[in-house]
Fold these 3 entries.
Entry 1:
Amino acid sequence: MDIKETYSEAEKRFDQFRRGMGLYAGPLAGLLVYFLPRAVAVPLPIPDAAHRLAALMIVMVIYWITEPIPLAITALLGPILAIFFGIGKDKEVIASFGNPVLFLFIGSFTIARAMEKHRLDRRFSFWLLSFPMVSKSPYRILFMLGTITAILSMWISNTAATAMIFPIALGILGTLSSERRDNACEGKPHYATGVMLMIAFAASVGGIATPIGTPPNLIGIGMLEKVIGYKISFFQWMQFGVPICLVMFLILYLLLSILFPSHGLNMSGSSDFIAEQKKWLGKWTSGEKNTLIVFFVAVFLWVLPGILGLLYGPKGTILTLYNERLPEGGIAILAASLLFFLPIDRGKGVFTLSWDDAASIDWGTILLFGGGLAMGDLMFKTGLSLAIGEGLLSLLPVESLWGITGLSIALAIVISELSSNTAAANMVIPVVISIATASGLNPLPPALGATLGASFGFMLPISTPPNAIVYGSQLIPIRSMMRAGIVFDLIGFLVIWGGLRLLSPLMFLG
């Protein structure tokens, strides 16, 4: 199949227009807010520092949505400009870039890089696809491709999971005699479109299952710990993340199976393709074995506090000592460091991972996390987030805990459709925490709702990198992505709200 992984000329022109407009619109909007009288620019009772921060945040929000410069650079500039304008002190602002959660990012990204380098992720994928009867049914292949993507995105970035499964899915589709790109692009419901959407959507759904599955999860965890002093452990997150993920995945499979039927495809070539690819991987290499060991070590140490809590109680001495000596960020760094000790070829001094490999991890997301955390902290300290929260409460008839939680989820989903999920989390989570706090309510459910909702951008290619990757296949008409995305966004809202409503009381979160 002739796949062109680029946007059309019209889409390129729109993207250039969006970036160019944002480059100038951001500073102009910021200056307007800064120089207008406070009561006019920001019709809320806020102090002078919050007024200056509001002007700066306007610039950052426009830049995060339109992306005229890299998101990470915007996140770095924000804190530095906040120091320059006297909004915060340098040591306090820059301290956010040393947040312990940031080390959980670094360690997990490094382990994911080793999985990619040694093709452990591909071996896992073809092992699942080679199960008896899977390759005989288009719906089983659809289910398995989604399952693999979701499981991978629990531990590596959703972008990396999509990029890895994408060519595998294209190879399988290429063996199906009834699949043709031109049919898919006629606007008719088509199996190939469903497969591509399954990969993209399952990557976002799988990411909510674990704290390291997607950056918004760690942003939410970091802000809750920094602002209200509540720490959510790895095991505790999975207690609500995994059930919500499972429900969303099953709904996703049913939805795509209905919207994009197979129409009696000839599956004769798919099993041969899978067997050929699995054979090409050959025997297990030392790099694969070492990476698998490190992965299991990290996961075991991450979930061990939950097991100890069940055995000895949430305030047991052993659990307390474990959390003090082995924080989750420390576990990630220790496990990732093993990759630089475990040899592949001891005689030649070759180890599982080299620094050149580690240097290629997504450092931009790490910087984006630090900058977002710094700006979120400033929004609380200056009173800006509280003022925004009170303003929203005055406009919307929402007063109860679960009404505010619903508002939080909806805001995060809408903003994530127009910007990256990381930027959406940075924008929404501080505000919803302040809304709940100002109302005298528990901020945990609204903050978790915003965190989960920030990962649910399904309507547009620009909503999230997995969408952009599969859209480049030219197998997805934009109207098909929007139709499926709107339905799945609405279902996602209900599942997140209902899941938190059901699980939060059981977990003492609300």
Note: The beta strands are 343-345, 350-351.
Entry 2:
Amino acid sequence: MRHSVEGGDKWTTVRLHRKIGETWNSINSMNDFLRLEAQAQASLEDGLELVEAEPLHLETIRLMITISRSAYWKEIYGTTPAWDTAEHYARIALEMAEQLDAPIELSAALGSLVRVYGARGLWRERVKVARQRLNVSREAHFEDLRENLDILTQIGQALMGVGEYAQAIPHLLEAEALGDQLQDVHGKAMAVVNQGQCWLRLDRWDEVLIAEEKLKALQRRHPLERLGSICWLLSFSATVHALRGDNEQAMQLRNESYEIMIDLTVTEENWVRENHY
């Protein structure tokens, strides 16, 4: 049966449906993402049917967050107009998390809302909700370090979106340190890339080059990880060299950045999925 797991209770089944949705949200291959969309959506709908008329439960909140994020990706890739759906379920999850006084779920719901606002170009609203999410984590003294990493990255990016680069830097430095603590190579890399963009906008050119070296060192330490985001820092560094009159070095870095973009776009379908350049 679609709605039940043999030998399991209802909430175990709801969790399974949610996990199927979460797994679909994280698929890197674009072909697989589209191929499995119908099955993933059916599973999430089954989960919704199971929680209907049930008392409020943490699994219900988590399911709503997963549905919101699934709708976000469906809109990003043009399979369905879904911004309204993504925001609707994020707000439902937010209200439920407040009722249950569940700070981790509240943070995750706020994170979903931040993503929708960013996609819709509601930059100030995005910053406001990202700050609210950060405050939740501080007040509740989160021990979920991965949630904290996402929070710090998100508030940094939200501030960057409204040109508040100097205010973004402390959050991104904290995110870098946390990524290092968690041994999250890609999380740390993204924090460094965002720092590089901030430094460039602030005309702190030496810091841009330092960020480039940090990311190159990270890639050398983890040769099996393809840090495609390094193309951004190479382009930032190219800009610095061009501004300083070293056009030869600028062109070399520009070409390296371009080659990485092309290589990853052709060979790894997750490039566009994870890096909207």
Note: The CA atoms of residues 71 and 85 lie 6 Å apart.
Entry 3:
Amino acid sequence: MQIQEDILKKTSTLIDKKNYKEVQSILLKFIKENNNIKIDVKVYYLLYLSCDALKENKSAKKYLEKCIKINNKNHIALNNLANIYLKEGNVLKAEKFYLRSLDNKKDYLIVIINLAIFYQDTGKLEEANKFYLKAINLSPKKISIYFNLSRINKNFINKEKLEYLLDIMRNEKIEPIDMSFGFFLLAEYERKQKDFIKEINYLEKAHQYIFNENLNRNKKTLNYWHNIIPKKYDKFKFINESKKNELANFNPIFIIGLPRSGSTMVEAILSSGDREIKNLGETNILSGAIVSTHNELQKEENTTIDLNLINNKVLKLMTDRNFLSKKSNIFTEKSLENFFYIEIILKIFPHAKFVNTFRNTGDNIFAIFQQALTQLSWTHSLENILKYVENYLKIISYFIKKYPNKILPLDLEELTNEPEKNSKKLYAFCNLKWNKNVLDFYKRKDLLISTASNIQIRNNINRYDYEKYKPYKDLLKKFIHKYDWIN
């Protein structure tokens, strides 16, 4: 049917232009007016793409299911449906649909990589290893796969493989993200050789490639985290406080702080007790809801927060992703940047508690710099990390003084050196009943961890390593005049 072909062509162009609402309007109208014809699977797939881009999880799932109903061997739709189930925390269904996708296309690289990451995040490292090797066989020049595999198999990258990857980096046209992962692997190799100067040099190159890959987005978000929100955290003016707030009945535990400060361990400990607690992970829902409903916050002078708007947005996003359980009113959320929004969160979730994980600041800075935190624009240079840390230290100090009963500072050093004592303190603060099994979190088969700590968290708690970052401490000396807390 020519009309349907024309509609598909038009809406495909609109998808490329990111006009997602217009795509929905055109396609839904077309479906309504043509209920007597066979609707092409591409119509539903374009509806899925638009809903997914707009974070309308429930609708995105519905349209993928329609795609699969038309063609149950559609490997792309099956893979994307698995992605949605994984976002919701439904591990069993995610695995089922990833495997169905693979069954229908044995050489589908995307689902093979997704399965490798899935098994890595669920602690099935042998399975992850198997799928990463499959991915390398299919795409031997994709360096990001080597990087991921090297995280679960520390002996995988030897000198011979490194030379092979270097040859690719020098002579092949590869994507910036693969160049960055190549430099991360080179940095790791030099770290093992104890050539820390070369390591830092390679890390700087790796981070530059990541930052430049999404240059405009990274510049914009870096400005937000460095220069906009740090000036507003204590100046918000609230309007339209809703009297009928469904979220007020929940008792969430927000884990906040800096990356690489023990937050993943705390999340795992909290969800390993007798009481059922849902780990939401790093949803970024609060930050997303605030920014999407208050574009004017980008302007320096504006500090007005419409609580009704944010309440509705957060409720919609959390309901859409099946995050709000009727069985339990407690959940953990660990979008670490939420320390900027403590005031707003307490208006939405008045019973919220915050666990601020922290460690030696110098150690924390280098732990961040050594990681490929691709989604965090401020992590890609030492200068940017230091500025973010400066804001964090100032803001968390302010809120701890203002809300001493709402925020528990939890030192990674103390937690790892005396895990029983400090996990009891954590549980008491969260009004939860402690038992010794909470420290056996690493034995759990149902522990889904998607952060940079997903390998490390599979082992018993190790005592704090005071020597690990000593070789780098001199690098901070040139910043002492600017940041007196470095000492």
Note: The domain at 235-486 is CATH 3.40.50.300 (Rossmann fold).
